[in-house]
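*** Protein under study ***
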Amino acid sequence: MLVEIKNLRIGFESRTGLTEAVRGVSLTLGTEKLGIVGESGSGKSLTARALMKLLPKQARIAADTLAFDGIDILTADERRMRQIRGRRAGFILQDPKYSLNPVKTIGSQVAEAWRTHKGGSRREAMEAAIALLEQVKIRDPRAVATSYPHEVSGGMGQRVMIAMMLAPDPELLIADEPTSALDATVQAEILRLIEELVSERGMGLLLISHDLPLVSHFCDRVAVMYAGRVMEELKASELLSARHPYTKGLIDCMPSLSHPRARLPVLTRDPEWLA
C-alpha cells in the first residue's frame, strides 16, 4: 500500500475560529490510478498537499493515519520528507508557467532534479535530462533543453514538468489538474503520455480533476469530494451510473453534444450530505 489516509482533517484559523476545509477524508492507493473529483474548494488539492507536507504553517492537520509506504507523514521531519518528495513521490502542478524557473534553461532544471536525487556529474545529469525529455515525446530534446520556459508552449512546458517529476523514478505520481491550462487536443496527448509512463514504470497515480468523463476513462477508481468530505468512492467504469445525488448532480450538469439542452440544470445541495 503506497498511500493510507484515515480521518484526515485540515483546518485554518480565522476570526471566527477554526474553519475546517477537509473533514474526515479516508483514502487508500496502491499501484493503481485513483482519481479525485469535485468542485473547486472541495479539498482535493489540500488532501494531496497534506500527503507531501506542503501545506502552509497556519494549517492545522490531524489524522488517525496519514502514511506513505508505512512512513507516518505527521511525525516525519523535513529531512525525511525530502527523501519522499521528488525521489519517491512526484507532484505535477496545474500550470508550468508558475512551476518552472524563468531564468534557467529547461535542460538545467530537469538535470538539477535528476542530480539532486541520483548524484553524478553535470554532464551525466544533462544527458539524463535530454533522455527524459525524449521519453516525454519532445521532438527535438537537445534544442528544447537549451530553451527557456517562456520559449515553449504550455503543452511542452507540462511535458517538461512531467520529465522533472520522473527523473528520480518515483513510486507515486500526483497530478493536480495537469491539463487545466491546455486546450482539448493537448490535454488528450498529455493524459495519454501520463497513462503510458505510469503503466510502463508500475507507479501509483493520484489524479485530481474537475473532468468527470476524463477520470472515468483514465482511472481505476474515483473518489468524489464535496465540502471537504468524500461523498462516494467507486470504480471509474461505474462513475456515470453513480448513486449518490451529488455525483449524479455533477454528471447531470455537464453539457452534451449528443443530447443538447436549452439550459443546464443547477445542482441542488442537500444539508444531509454533510450530516
Notes: The chain has a mean pLDDT of 90. Residues 184-201 form the longest helix (18 residues). DSSP finds nine helices and eleven strands in the chain. The CA atoms of residues 3 and 68 lie 5 Å apart.
